[in-house]
Design goal:
The protein is of the alpha+beta class and 199 residues long. The chain has a single domain, classed as Aminopeptidase (3-Layer(aba) Sandwich), CATH 3.40.630.30. Helices cover 31% and strands 24% of the residues. Strands 1, 2, 3, 4, 5, 6, 7, 8 and 9 form a nine-stranded mixed beta sheet that branches. The chain is globular and about 45 Å long.
Length: 199
């Protein structure tokens, strides 16, 4: 009986070399290091970051991909108003270089979109490469009249309706609407970013 359980575990492990779970407080340092590695130190100056600063991600929509006990992928979704229409902003999505061939990014996207739909959200917007995100149903079809705070490339502003017609008539500036981070968490997050990293 014990041998059978071990075999079953090994088979599951071989079939799925990573797991996706809700982000934990213990993931923060690894997530920040992963985002720095993927997007560089200037990631805090990007347009979409202005929608996330000082805000908490949408409840249940901050996910980590874990492989052999390490965070190898992350994605978060945030409450925004898309010109007055409630939506979620997805990002950043990041996967550790050595895990990219395992399908971690696609699994995070599928899981995040399914969880958003299950929670009753109607639309998701992101800033990213259209050829990559098209396979998840994203396009620029209904984002042409939307804007982001700061400079951005128009053809990279993409949307996906989780309910048909959710982005009909979307027009104007995308603005954050999510809950503010509690003061202690916001100050801890800033301090974590200021801690010097080893070379």
């Amino acid at each position: 009986m014990t041998a059978l359980r071990k075999t079953t575990t090994a088979l599951i492990s071989d079939a799925a070399p990573f797991a996706i779970r809700a982000e934990r407080a213990s993931d923060v340092a690894a997530r920040e290091a992963l985002l720095d590695a993927c997007f560089g130190d200037n990631r805090h100056t990007r347009s979409c970051q202005r929608l996330r600063d000082g805000r908490a991600p949408a409840e249940g929509l901050a996910l980590s991909a874990v492989r052999q006990g390490r965070v190898v992928g992350t994605v978060r979704l945030w409450h925004v108003s898309a010109g007055g229409i409630p939506a979620l902003m997805l990002g950043p999505l990041a996967v550790e270089a050595s895990s990219r061939q395992l399908g971690v990014g696609a699994a995070l996207m599928d899981h995040a979109l399914a969880a958003a739909k299950a929670r009753g959200h109607r639309a998701v917007i992101l800033l990213g490469d259209a050829p990559y995100y098209a396979r998840f149903g994203f396009s620029a079809a209904k984002t042409g009249e939307l804007s982001l705070p700061g400079a951005f490339e128009r053809d990279r502003l993409l949307g996906r309706e989780l309910c048909e017609g959710a982005l009909d008539g979307a027009w104007g500036m995308i603005a954050p609407t999510g809950a503010p981070l509690p003061k202690t968490k916001a100050s801890r997050a800033r301090k974590a970013l200021l801690v010097p990293r080893a070379a």
